[in-house]
Fold each of these.
Amino acid sequence: MSDHSPLIVSVSGIRGLVGQSFTDDTVHGFASAYGSALKPGARVVLARDTRPSGEGFSGVAAAALQQAGCVVLDLGVCSTPGAKVMIAELGADAGVVLTASHNPTPWNGLKLIRDDGMFLNHEQGKRVAESYRSGLFTERSGGRVETVAPEDTLDRHLRRILASVDADSIRRAGLAAAIDPCNGAGGILLPQLLAELGVDGRFINADTTGRFAHSPEPTPENLQELGRAVLANGSNLGFAIDPDADRVALVGEDGRAVGEDYSLALAVQAVTSPPRRRGPVVTTLSTSQIVTDAARRNGCPVLLTAVGEIHVTEKMREEKAVIGGEGNGGVIISEVVPGRDAALGTALLLEALAAAPGHSLRSLVDRLPTYFIEKRKQACDPGSLGAACEALLEKYPKAYVHPVSDGVKLYMSGTLECPWVHLRLSNTEPIARIIAEATTAEEASGLCDEAEELLREG
């Protein structure tokens, strides 16, 4: 393995560059390790996103799971949330999804899922990784592969989403939307979802080839084509979906990108507004203050976790949260899918838009306070990150340090309000992430500048 091509193993799964750090041996080893940890005859859902490398890797994973005595329920190309739905619907014991989520085409990865539809937590993942490194796997008889019809997965997932939103209000609104699934798994479910909701859906990059038309992370610079499609079609808004369809980002009716955090903030408003439910809302340290503001407006407490979907979903279960998610466009309602689901987020946002004045996304955004959040990446090792965190603490001795451990998050005013800066190692790339938020763009940028400088010095 090259130093420039690390295998990343974290609570967000396993990811690497195809043919370098991520190979048939990688897939076989992790699938064998996970299969060995399951009970004999365990039923394991297997799915993959649309990446060209996925089909071959899926065959390798299926063979390894069979050797461990597992019954493999092969969904074929399927979104990550769709696979989670099918674990519950089929009463499966586990799931394995081949995807590198928002990483570019040369990457692939594995997401390992428990019988409750959640990803492995840190300790569970650590045990599988130790087994993988040992190379000592259990072989059992009785393994086999059963194919699940794609229509079955789609229908079950769709039924859960439609039961969770006010579909009639969306249909009455007569909305139009542009959608960019980035040649990923979202191109399977989204067309039928929008048809069921009576939304005039105009799709770009919808063929499920896995040859992404642009960098797949739904950041503003990658949403320009979607913005043009919104304007060309006179749509109310645009939805950008990442390759395994667990994140959704927005473009307004003016063709301009709306920050990823607004996906969760507006979904929180839709779910917690009367006559719907109130209750705890869970999100992560790196999520914008607007999500907290949206929840508090409707009298809902907010709890913050370390970054990583499993941290959010486990806290949601513990607190009986009504909604949760991450500031990267991930929306979670546990009863629908115990994890981020772009299709669910899309439906909730359409419901919010149906009730908005003039069906305007900008009118919804303008109801929330204005903050400026800046997100940067920088190559770094764990030692440099630790030194930079210590230096930040020394520079701002009066700042409030959030007690959740995930790098360091400082609230500069000493209270749980903006401005803040969060410095942490990425779960999905060999980098540090620097996120800062303030009431002015200059202050947010300045905080990122300081953190970057400290990382370089470290």
Note: The chain is about 40% helix and 20% strand.
Amino acid sequence: MRLQIAMDAVLGYRAIEIVETIHDVIDIVEIGTPLILREGLSTVSAIKNKYPALTVLADTKIVDGGELECRDACEAGADIITFLALANLATARAVIDTAHRYSKKAMADLICVQDIKGRSIELKELGVDYICVHTAVDIQTLGRTPLEDLKQLVTAVPSSFTAAAGGINMENLASFTELNPEIIIAGSSLMNSENIRNAVIEMQHAIKK
């Protein structure tokens, strides 16, 4: 299992500062959708240029224009590019094929998908690299996490294809690690901690022990 930190509610310069403190203890750095909407892909490029060995994910959530949008993210330096699993399969195929042409990886975000098993099987057949169950922030306020969705996902595709995001923290982490997803994604539970580096190390220990 690998740990991914999601950086959404920060400015680019702050994201770069944070990465300076955790680049040696984190597996994947996610430049979140809100940050990309505010500042484009410049933070992706800045981090990848400074830490070329670090895996950087651009949470572009592509839903149309798959080839063009994915190409821009690849050329900015992203190693993993996300698209919405709700998108037309033609868009999904364009993102996956473009990412692979650049020797990058594509992740499908299952947010709002009802038929998790069916859609995941279709996406795996297209060649997607990762499939992520994702409970939206607005839904998390209702007390939901992606745990039940992850239970469905791991019955549809091998765990090496799976990722989970949305309200994961130290209190509920064990429930997720029992299902052995390839990627555990944590956002606010890490970003809002007093010492982000220590929080990352603590979660890493829990994931990898």
Note: The beta strands are 2-7, 28-31, 55-62, 80-84, 105-109, 130-134, 162-165, 183-186.
